[in-house]
Structures are given as structure tokens and as C-alpha cells.
Structure prediction request, 257 residues.
Amino acid sequence: MQKSKILAQKNLVEQYEKNVDLTKQQFKSYTGIAYTPLNTLDDIELSIDATLLNSPIQIADYQTKIYEENLKILKQDTNEIAWNGGTAANKDTDASDPTTLSINGDATYSVNNLSFSGGAKGTWGLSTGNFTPYVTVNITYTSDSATSEDELKIQSMSNKVQSSSLDYQEELSDHTFNVFSLQNDIQISNWELQQFLFDKSINLINLDNKQILFDNGLLTNTDLETAKKEIQIDVFEEQILKLDRLILQNNINKEFL
Prediction:
């Protein structure tokens, strides 16, 4: 029974060593460079700041805001209500009245297809006291084809706003799900590490006890070697755990790029 257990432990160690050699060969095949073993691989403190957003979310948010502003501008240009006015006064020279003063003003009102403009001017003879008024009125109509084109532009921009808003919500939803998943992975990884460290401490205590028993002639050399192999296996498993945590850290960094 004891001999078969030792043989199983020996086969397990040999299998680990074969897997390590195979992994080194695959590394060289994929990267083109020989594997350089790590002397030490420090453990990583895994954490996530769930308040941070990644670049795709921020880009989608900015794009939506740009489209919204463009839509506002289009609506203002299409359904414009504006008054443009001005006044001016100048001193003219006239044959009948050498000294005259002219005052003029104009205004424009636009809404939908129609544009109304008007102007008024008055000439006042300073020496004669005569005042001559002038009034002009213009109405401009924009064809329905031009209005339809504006409506199409507004509809197109509205569609862009909706599409961009959906992209933002989708990016935010994916990010929220990924963060939740990564948080679960962190909890699992932390638990696995703590469990391993506990088992490792038990194996070290077991090895120390068996060494004492062996030194006092109460344990065979075979039993002592079995305990030592368990420690060797722990070394491999610890490196695997730390590498897994390094991969998880890289996945966290990628999510917040």
C-alpha cells in the first residue's frame, strides 16, 4: 500500500516535469525565443476600481454628445427665428438742400419656409425741415424640396443620436458585466491562494515532523522522500497559481484600457 502511494507520487512529479518541458517547447515555438525561467514570481494584489470607465464607453459618450449638439444646430438652422436690424445716419449733400440727414433701418424674420424682410428710410432736410420717408417690404418663400432636405438631415442626425446612445448603453452593459465577472474571479483566485498557502504550511509541518521521526529512527527513508516530493509539487503549484493571478491582472488592465 505504502509502496504504491510512493510510486504514484513519483509518477506525478515526473508528469509535472514533462508538462514543464512541453510548455517550454511550446513557448519557444510561439515566440521564437527560448524560455527564461523566473527566479521569483511575486504575488499580485488583485483589485478593481468599479467607478472607472474604459475608453470605448467614453468614446461612445463623447460621440453621442457631438451628435446631439449637431442635431440642435440643424433644428435651429431649419426653424430659425431671427431678427437682424440696424440703423445708420449720414450727412448728404443735395442740390436743393445742401444739408440733409438720412436715417435708415432694416429687419428680417424667418420661420419655416418663409422669410420676411423690411426696411425704412427717412431723409430730413436740416435747412428746409422737410422729412421724406421710404418703406420697403420683401417676402421670400423657400420651396418644399429644400424643407424636405432639411427634414431628412434632421432625421438622419436623430438616427445617429439614437444609434450612438445604444452603442454607449451596450458598451456600459458589457463593461459592467465584465467587471462583475472579474470581481468573482478575484474572489476565487484569492480563496485558492489562501487554501494553497494553508495546505503548503501543513505539508511543511508534516515534513518537519517526519524529519524528526526519521532522525530518531522512527520513520523510513521512503516516507521521508515522499514528504519531500509533496513540497516539490507545492513549488510548482504555487508558481502556477501566481501565473494565473498575473494573467487575471492583465485581463483587468485590458478591461480598463
Summary: Strands lie at 86-92, 100-111, 114-125, 131-141. Helices lie at 2-31, 55-78, 144-215, 221-255.
